[in-house]
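Q: Could you write out the predicted structure for this multi-component system? I'm mainly interested in how the pieces pack against one another.
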Amino acid sequence: MSTVQRGAFIVIEGLDRSGKSTQAALLQSRLQNANVSVKLMKFPDRTTPVGKMIDAYLRSQSDVDDRTIHLLFSANRWEAVSSIESTLAAGTTIICDRYAFSGVAFSAAKGLPLAWCRSPDVSLPAPDLTLFLDISPDIAKSRGGYGEERYEKEELQRRVRNIFHQLGDELPKDGAGRWAVIDAGRDLNTVSESLWHEVAITIHDCTKQDSVGKLWQ
Ligand code: TMP
Ligand code: MG
């Protein structure tokens, strides 16, 4: 009988235009080159029926009540849980572009109570590592494409950033489930090197643990 070591669950978080998607793709190809089985995921996943409602909302093609859209973002994660669990169990590492921290940070920044925002995401699979790409909202704003979607406004992004830091401060800085702050205002290659360093530590540590934890419980 062969025992498969589980994959690592790695989340990348940050403000809009912080470079998450670019860095996630770079990380994916670096892991592939190192012969690590890897899958890229992204939330919101706009391809599902729930994701299509979220997409219409973000592009201001529909208006949805704040609490309702919050629960749809959470549902969009819950509908992926069995796929996350089976992927990790099969030994594939997941690089996930946004997760529940975005869910809480954006809705709480709009004025919903933080504890209320957190509760629907409690007990989702917990990331082994969350990489927070930290960037000042004015640098993010100066990057291309900013302002196209609903939340891409400097004042809101400022509040979002504060809540991200608050959520990260609750998590350990080392070991399982840790939160790593990465200065994303630097050039692409320097940021990519920092991420690679953090990811290598986590993939190494993960081989010692059997199953993924549960978020916020
Ligand atoms: P994206 O630009 O990464 O596709 O994300 C779309 C927007 O949705 C972005 O402004 C962050 C926001 N968001 C939430 O408000 N709640 C969530 O749960 C997630 C995953 C994203
Ligand atoms: Mg965006």
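A: Regarding packing and overall arrangement: The longest strand covers residues 9-14.
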